Every structure is written in structure tokens, then in C-alpha cells.
């Protein structure tokens, strides 16, 4: 757990309340000294101005800090939601391709693990099969997908996800220079 992982919304609210309480105590002490002292005990004007300046800074810091924290937490939640949406979209694209290629359930598993970056031996261990079986299934996947290996297989999915996001002139250039196997499989 990193240092920032422990900063849950509840803990941050507690820190904010402690900070606000400290500001309140400081302000109360300042105003007590300013307004409840006898004439002979009046603090020098420079000290009064300094205390008011510090109090103003503390109040602004607390309010702006809380506002920035709330915005940051909102953005983090939004980013998390977008990441989940992107992950779901990637899974949908994969399922669509696997169906188009008519992959068996075993081949779909191998393809998924391969796209996640696992080695042949790791896939074999996870699936309880031999490395030779995984290699044969990988070759069948590549043949059905019309690619020569794992990097091209991965590029099919990345291409599907980013193709709509490219600016017009770059998209046209990318489509005109794409290998024929990629455009026929992903098209």
C-alpha cells in the first residue's frame, strides 16, 4: 500500500475537520486578544495585521484545499469509470473477434492469456496442459486471425480501439498503409 492509498475519503474528511478546528482555535485566540484585552494590553498594530493575514491564509488554504481535494476525488472516480468502460469495450472487441474467427473455448482462453502477456509456459500451467498444446492452439489462433504472431494479434485489437479516435488525415494514412491481412480481418 502506497502512502496515498491510505487517504480514503473518510480519513481526508477527518483531516479537513482537524484543520478547520485548528483554524477556528487560532481565529478565536486572535479575536480574543484583539477585542477582550484591556487598553493597556493592546497588541502592536503590526502584530494584529500579521495575525489577521495568517488567519486569512489559513482559512483560504483550508477552503481551497478542500475544494481541490473534492475535484481531485471526482476526477479520480471519473477516470476509474472510464477505465472500466474501456476495459469492457476491449473485452467486447475481443469476444467479437473470437466469434468471427470461430475460436474454440480453449483457443479463446489461450488467446486471452496471450493478449494479457503470459508466456506459453504460464498459459500451459494455468490451463493444466502442455506447452506444446498451447503452441498448437496459438498457431491455430494466428491462422484463423490471419496474422503471423502475438504482436500482430494484439495490434488487431489496438487498431480497432483507436481507429475511431484518429484525426481524419492520420486515419486515412493509417488505413492506406495498413497491411492487407489486418484490413481484411479487422474490416
TrEMBL record:
Residues 96-161 form the HTH luxR-type domain. It comes from the Bacteria. SMART domains: HTH_LUXR. The keyword Membrane applies. Gene3D superfamilies: Winged helix-like DNA-binding domain superfamily/Winged helix DNA-binding domain (1.10.10.10). It holds the Pfam family GerE. Keywords: Coiled coil, Membrane, Transmembrane, Transmembrane helix. InterPro entries: Sig_transdc_resp-reg_C-effctor, Tscrpt_reg_LuxR_C, WH-like_DNA-bd_sf. GO terms for molecular function: DNA binding. One of its GO terms (biological process) is regulation of DNA-templated transcription. Signal peptide: none annotated. The chain crosses the membrane at residues 12-28, 48-69. This is Helix-turn-helix transcriptional regulator. It comes from Rhodalgimonas zhirmunskyi.
Amino acid at each position: 500500500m502506497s502512502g496515498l492509498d491510505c487517504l480514503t475519503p473518510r480519513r481526508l474528511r477527518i483531516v479537513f475537520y482537524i484543520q478547520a478546528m485548528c483554524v477556528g482555535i487560532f481565529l478565536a485566540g486572535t479575536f480574543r486578544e484583539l477585542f477582550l484585552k484591556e487598553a493597556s494590553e493592546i497588541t502592536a498594530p503590526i502584530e494584529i495585521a500579521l495575525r489577521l493575514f495568517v488567519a486569512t491564509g489559513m482559512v483560504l488554504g483550508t477552503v481551497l484545499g478542500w475544494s481541490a481535494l473534492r475535484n481531485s476525488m471526482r476526477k479520480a472516480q471519473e477516470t476509474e469509470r472510464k477505465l472500466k468502460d474501456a476495459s469492457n469495450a476491449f473485452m467486447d472487441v475481443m469476444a467479437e473477434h473470437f466469434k468471427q474467427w470461430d475460436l474454440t473455448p480453449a483457443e479463446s482462453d489461450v488467446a486471452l492469456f496471450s493478449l494479457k502477456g503470459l508466456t506459453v509456459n504460464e498459459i500451459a500451467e494455468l490451463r493444466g496442459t502442455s506447452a506444446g498444446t498451447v503452441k498448437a492452439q496459438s498457431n491455430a489462433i494466428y491462422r484463423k486471425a490471419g496474422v503471423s504472431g502475438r504482436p500482430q494479434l494484439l495490434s488487431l485489437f489496438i487498431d480497432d480501439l483507436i481507429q475511431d479516435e484518429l484525426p481524419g488525415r492520420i486515419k486515412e494514412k493509417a488505413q492506406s498503409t495498413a497491411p492487407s491481412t489486418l484490413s481484411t480481418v479487422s474490416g
